[in-house]
Amino acid sequence: MHILIVEDDDTIASPLATGLERAGYTVTRVDTGEDALRMPQADLVLLDLGLPDLDGSEVCRRMRGTSDVPIIVVTARGEELDRVLLLEIGADDYLVKPFGFRELLARIRAVLRRSGQSSSTPEAMQVQTLGPLVVDRRARKVMLDDAELHLTPKEFDLLAFLAANAGAAISRDEILGEVWDTDWWGSTKTLDVHIASLRRKLGTKVSIDTVRGFGFRLGEPG
Ligand code: CA
After folding, report:
1. What is the pLDDT of residues 110-136, one digit of tens each?
2. What is the C-alpha to C-alpha distance for residues 175 and 192, in angstroms, rounded to an integer?
3. What is the pLDDT of residue 184?
4. Segments forming the whole domain that contains residue 167
5. How far is the CA of 196 from the centre of ligand 1 (A)?
6. How far apart are CA 102 and CA 52, in angstroms?
7. What residues sit around ligand 1, an ion, with C-beta below 5 angstroms?
8. How remote is the CA of residue 33 from the centroid of ligand 1, in Å?
């Protein structure tokens, strides 16, 4: 997932870019509206309204004229903000500065999900086979060597999410936001408990690897 940050204030754009990269996104930064309009299409745009050259709402309108890329508008506190106007110019959501990073991540996921660009569960993956493991998302059933595994609903969601990204490292924040609730930012201990339980149930046939300091990865059975 490639995110374009359009923001002229480096004290905001810089930590934002770092945080999003840490969360697993590819980030490109530009600080003017003209540059934003020249960039090749991203999967999502974070757009500051107060840009040095063009008005952010004009940038939004022009982007929308040529693409349906999801756009989250970022505004400074106190800026008079008309939700109806934002919808008219084609923004998908907005955030008022200063905002929390987790709030931003939650909005990004929600917008990507609504626009059908979420990478988590493509339609084609309704029934997914990974070696001895079969994840059936329609029936919410998991088979291991043709025997059904008895999982709790959260264990199922967690395994289904890891399986959808098999072989890829997924960050803890990403897992918590996707499997729990976008508003749920409790202790990551809950995640560890569920991982431990899943590992027990999966035995030695399928491995969930710990990616130190980052998150987890479901090994692709060889
Ligand atoms: Ca600005």
Report:
1. 888 877 765 444 455 688 888 899 999
2. 11
3. 47
4. 125-218
5. 45
6. 27
7. 8-9, 48, 50
8. 11
